[in-house]
Amino acid sequence: MTQTVAVLGTGKIGEALLSGMIRGGWPASKLLVTARRTERAEELRTRYGVEAVSNAEAAKRADTLILTVKPQDMAKLLDELAPHVPADRLVISGAAGVPTAFFEERLAPGTPVVRVMTNTPALVDEAMSVISAGSHATAAHLAHTEEIFGSVGKTLRVPESQQDAATALSGSGPAYFYFLVEAMTDAGILLGLPRAQAHDLIVQAAIGAAVMLRDSGEHPVKLREAVTSPAGTTINAIVELEKHGVRAALIAALEAARDRSRELASGNS
Ligand SMILES: NC(=O)C1=CN([C@@H]2O[C@H](COP(=O)(O)OP(=O)(O)OC[C@H]3O[C@@H](n4cnc5c(N)ncnc54)[C@H](OP(=O)(O)O)[C@@H]3O)[C@@H](O)[C@H]2O)C=CC1
Ligand SMILES: O=C(O)[C@@H]1CCC=N1
User: Can you tell me which atom of ligand 1 is nearest the CA of 174?
Assistant: First the structure.
């Protein structure tokens, strides 16, 4: 029998996951959601046909609780939940930075906790969800977590010590590509193209490059070399990227994201 899963704090990520589970055939009758505002609860009820309940009721009724509030809201949510969560419930956190120990300290001794960092391409079933076990989570808990997050894309298990890095690369990752598309579309404007056309050209280049990266089995350097003709156009662009330190900027940017994930560890910063 399908277990009941509750999404607590159903915002952007919670809703992306919920919608994917429903697309994947999860019965709406086995899903519960919670929201802070009544109009948001009503919206989720209408849109997905799921029951919206209080956090305490979700804790009592669901076998698995997926907490998708902001890291800064997690301590308050746990204060509210802790008295109602029996120790046999699986608690999955989707929050950046917050370690499994933070949950274990606030819930009944022995409560299994799994930490997951997913990303917004969950909305189109192309997420990467990076999964780590807390100290009481078993292989069965990890497999159940993979079943849930597998409905919105790929999953990968990593030791929890790698979660801050995974958050910098994968959780935040889509934002970097949107940023590049935005900047390159501006370049298209500078070169005299209409904005819509510049956007379409860059998005298709991104999709083509992404599929080749995923499916060709070739190293990115090889793929770039195949585009870069001797005394051609591409090398002129690459020289400018290197001159402006884009490689170093990306490395520093991801390091800064990793550091911020570490800072969020206390859940209240
Ligand atoms: N956005 C992203 O790309 C990613 C986000 N994450 C993580 O996912 C989590 C959620 O992020 P995101 O979806 O962007 O944020 P949102 O603000 O969209 O979602 C959080 C939701 O939780 C609700 N909420 C807060 N406190 C409570 C409470 N006590 N009870 C019930 N509901 C509550 C908020 O209500 P209200 O609407 O009233 O504010 C909001 O709707 C974060 O921890 C983030 O680190 C992980 C991967 C990627
Ligand atoms: O920016 C953030 O904090 C969240 C976590 C990863 C992506 N978005």
Answer: 3
- Among 122, 145, 166, the domain boundary falls at 166
The rounded distance, in Å, linking the Cα atoms of 65 and 119 is 19
204-215 pLDDT, tens per residue? Answer: 999 999 999 999
* The domain boundary residue, chosen from 166, 186, 213: 166
The type of residue at 268 is: N
Q: Phi and psi (nearest 5°) for 245? A: 70, 35
Judged by DSSP in three states, 6 sits in strand
Query: Do 137 and 179 lie in a common domain?
Result: no
Q: Could you tell me if the ipTM is greater than 0.85?
A: yes
Residue bearing the CA closest to ligand 1, atom 40: 11
- Identify whether residues 205 and 223 lie together within a single domain: yes
Which run of H or of E encompasses 156?
A: strand 153-157
pTM as predicted? 0.96
